[in-house]
Write a structure and sequence with these properties.
about 600 residues, mainly alpha, two-stranded parallel ribbon, 30 helices, about 70% helix, globular, membrane
């Protein structure tokens, strides 16, 4: 009976929509009318809950907190996705409160169920191994088979999008490389030179389009190599070939990966180096002998070094990781300090990478040799803009004067975009003094104390998609190389020689339609939702933490710190390229978590 009630709660929560729930006369329209689908879902849920009950697995308090957090974040994002500006439009009515409780309870029960299943297999002593011919074939070629399969799929997608799928940031980099705009270090110089060189070679040999396509192919093959190497090493560490085969197919086939690795942007190369970085960490934490015997400290150094060259936020999340590792290394007396340790290698990678970035920026940039201050102030700026929009009557004249010295108050109030901070950041006065910035932050702290819900919503509106397990918010960049270019951008593309290919645009449209179908199918939609990978990442961390495997839990410090840098940035909604590193590495963390108690025998000569 208990499982029947739980199934009923889940079904009721799943049929709630919020676009009209705040209007009492239309509250019935806020429940989807699909009796047949609800009945099928109810029957399936009863079977699911009965199955999980037989596992006799319980979750701990920290796991329940994670489940509740994701359920609430999903509630926030679902409200914003329905077109409402604030959750107050929902919870202002009793019906809205009831529907919200049902919605949150529904997702809480589902997420708890996932955590119970994960916990059961985490504690299960044996690993199921299937002795099939394709399993044996994979085990004999644990790098080559993934490398071939992943490349076949990803390169096919790349050919369908010839010459590439282009980003506004990428065009900005190319116009700087070809001296069509002022050179700055707003984008990593290494990435600018790397991409520009391929396009330039294409101009000299044949066409700029071919150069851009060659760049895309090199990028795709590199990331496929990194993922295949991660599969190979994880197999050597865990011997869990069955699960790794599933992961190989998923990473090759889901639109979130094969539709993103073809983007001509610095974030994709960075993602490949991030995978190599995490593979190095996994070997260090799981089997230190493997780490030393295969000299993975060298790969760790170079992965940090190249991440620094392709993404500036590397400094922040690696720096935080080093601080945590040093602190817990002292507390736990672990070997974080020998010459080849991960701590030393990360410090060296940061120092050398920072030095190279400084040299390249000074040699390349004509102005702005360092990123602007505004790049890491999205959170307070977004809060200020939301407060100005919804609580302008509470802003005193003195506060307005203080804000105006840092941001254009009238502009941010009028143009506030809850999903991205670019519009607000563009008004920032980079010449604001230290005292003016201090006064501004004091105003922010005061306003947060007055309206804490506004502070929460300013973050949730921009970033709750990272934790939204309800509906994927993927953006597949379907507009070709020009995107939605203005006249100046179109003119610059023509000067460089890059243009859309009509046949590829048609193929692109077909590909994106198939992606959208993929996102509407059960199970497939879940594994193509990047919030699912963030959830699995946190679930693995909590499993290790609650099991007092604190040493292994350290593997999740850099991924958590990386998520933090994204939240501090301008936008994550639908921008898969930002979250791609987490999508690519989380499956391997999961395999390690499920296998660490089994203690497989390792052949270090492999």
């Amino acid at each position: 009976m208990k499982n029947v009630v739980k199934a009923m709660v889940v079904i009721l929560g799943q049929i709630v929509v919020f676009n009209q729930v705040g209007q009492s006369e239309n509250y019935k329209k806020s429940l989807l009318n699909s009796p047949a689908l609800a009945l099928l879902g109810f029957v399936g849920l009863v079977f699911l809950f009965n199955y999980v009950s037989k596992l006799k697995t319980k979750t701990k308090i920290l796991q329940k907190i994670v489940s509740l957090f994701f359920a609430i974040a999903t509630w926030f994002m679902s409200i914003y996705g329905s077109g409402l500006d604030t959750v107050m439009e929902v919870i202002v009515s009793p019906v809205g409160v009831i529907y919200s409780i049902l919605f949150v309870a529904s997702f809480y029960l589902l997420i708890e169920t996932m955590q119970k299943i994960l916990t059961y297999y985490y504690h299960k002593d044996e690993t199921i191994h299937y002795n099939r011919w394709f399993i044996r074939w994979f085990e004999a070629h644990s790098f080559l088979i993934p490398f071939i399969l992943i490349n076949l799929v990803w390169l096919l997608v790349a050919f369908s999008a010839y010459p590439s799928v282009f980003m506004g940031d990428s065009l900005d980099q190319l116009t700087q490389f070809f001296l069509l705009s002022t050179r700055t270090a707003a984008h990593p110089v290494t990435s600018t030179i790397f991409m520009g060189s391929y396009v330039h070679v294409g101009q000299l040999v044949s066409t700029a389009n071919n150069g851009l396509f060659l760049y895309t192919v090199v990028q795709v093959v590199f990331v496929a190599f990194c993922v295949s190497y991660a599969i190979h090493v994880t197999y050597k560490l865990t011997r869990n070939s069955s699960l790794l085969l599933i992961i190989m197919v998923i990473l090759a086939m889901i639109p979130m990966t094969n539709g993103t690795v073809i983007l001509a942007t610095k974030d994709i190369m960075f993602s490949g180096f991030f995978v190599l970085y995490m593979v190095s960490l996994i070997t260090y934490f799981v089997d230190d002998d493997y780490y030393k015997k295969h000299h993975l400290y060298v790969m760790l150094f170079f992965s940090v070094f190249f991440m620094m060259l392709f993404r500036y936020n590397t400094l922040h999340f690696i720096g935080l990781t080093i601080v945590v590792y040093v602190f817990f290394g002292l507390v736990m007396r672990k070997k974080f300090y020998r010459l080849t340790s991960v701590t030393i290698m990360m410090i060296l990678g940061l120092l050398v990478g920072f030095g190279c970035n400084t040299f390249l920026a000074n040699a390349f940039a004509e102005e702005q040799t360092t990123p602007k201050r505004r790049e890491m102030l999205s959170l307070p700026f977004q809060f200020t803009a939301r407060y100005a929009k919804f609580h302008s009557s509470d802003v005193t004249e003195k506060e307005r004067i203080v804000i105006d010295k840092v941001l254009d108050y009238d502009a941010i109030k009028k143009n506030y975009d809850p999903y991205r901070s670019d519009v607000v950041k563009a008004t920032h006065n980079e010449s604001a003094t230290k005292d003016e910035m201090t006064d501004y932050f004091n105003v922010v702290k005061k306003q947060i104390r007055m309206e804490p819900l506004t502070a929460v919503e300013s973050v949730m509106a921009s970033h709750s998609n990272l934790f939204n397990l309800n509906k994927t918010v993927n953006d597949y960049y379907s507009n070709g190389v020009k995107m939605s270019a203005d006249d100046m951008e179109t003119m610059n593309l023509e000067k460089i020689g890059i243009h859309d290919n009509k046949r590829s645009l048609r193929l692109n449209k077909i590909r994106v339609r198939l992606y959208k179908v993929f996102d509407r199918l059960p199970v497939l939609a879940q594994i193509d939702n990047y919030a699912f990978y963030v959830f699995m990442m946190l679930a693995v961390f909590v499993l290790w933490f609650t099991d007092k495997q604190f040493y292994l839990a350290g593997l999740l410090i850099p991924t958590g710190a990386f998520i933090g840098t994204l939240i501090a940035g301008p936008i994550t909604l639908g921008y898969i390229r930002y979250i791609l590193p987490i999508v690519l590495v989380t499956p391997f963390l999961l395999v390690v978590a499920l296998q660490t108690k089994k203690k497989p025998s390792l052949d270090l000569n492999d």
